[in-house]
Amino acid sequence: MNGCELIAQERQRQIDSEGWTTAHDDEHMNGEMSVAAAIYAAPGYECSNSPRIRAAIMQFWPWYVSWFKPCRDDRVRELVKAGALIAAEIDRLQRSPR
Length: 98
What we know:
The protein is mainly alpha-helical and about 100 residues long. The chain has helices at about 5-20, 20-25, 30-40, 50-60, 75-95.
């Protein structure tokens, strides 16, 4: 599967398994999905053994800490999650009145 297919599959999983519907996504009007995507996309968290670095990264996490599910040994999975969140944010912006 290529990157776009993996992202589309993850986005569908988020909808089907997590219940993150378009109505739910529309409630996040302050860039939360983009920030979460950036955290998943940024290298460092999964590689860091430093509590200070992890704390610095997590201060930007927009939701409950328990919702952050890093895959420390799978960088592709982190990027797929980031891509799915970006796709959700793009869709939300396209639905919103301008």
